[in-house]
Each structure stands twice: as C-alpha cells, then as structure tokens.
Amino acid sequence: MWRIRPRDIGGEELATLLRKFGEIARTTGSHLRLTTYRDGEHSVTIPKHGALRVGTPNRILTDVAGHLRMTKDDLIGELFG
C-alpha cells in the first residue's frame, strides 16, 4: 500500500504529477484548476501552496481516483511509483 505524507508535497508538485491525466485549465490567484476529459469532463482545484494541509492531497487524490474509476492506491502508484 502506498502512502504519501501530506506535508511532503506542494500543490504545484501535485498538479504537475496529475497532468498525466489532464491539463491545467486555468490559474486564479493561489489556485490551479486541473481538468480532464477522460471518461467525461472533470475538474479539481489545487492550491499552489508550498506545503498542503494534511487532508488536502488525500481529498484531491480520492476525487481524481473516483473519476478515473480506480482506487486511490492505484492512482498513487501511477503518480509516485
């Protein structure tokens, strides 16, 4: 089982990894909007902060994995493996 420590990843780094599945649709202030058209359109907002709060990466990865119809562990394996 893969584990990431939430304080080990920043928003821009997470967005860069997730670009494997979509594109950055826009940047507004301190947030990025990542959009995928795989299996229908889906967007997720990612803070551009240096260190994300504890639950933020978990929420983002759970949301993306759900849209892609994969487990969060499989998604983490693809991103960090």
Describe the structure.
The protein contains three helices and three strands; from the N terminus they run αβββαα. By secondary structure, it is an alpha+beta fold. The protein has one domain: Metal Transport, Frataxin, Chain A. A three-stranded antiparallel beta sheet has the order 1-2-3, covered by helices on one side. Strand 2 and strand 3 form a beta hairpin. The longest helix has 12 residues. The radius of gyration is 12 Å and the shape is globular.
Indicate the structural class.
alpha+beta
Instruction: Sketch the topology as an H/E string, one letter per element.
Output: HEEEHH
The CATH top-level class label = Alpha Beta
Query: Quick one: biggest sheet?
Result: 3 strands, antiparallel
Q: Please give the radius of gyration in angstroms.
A: 12 Å
Beta-strand content: 15-25%
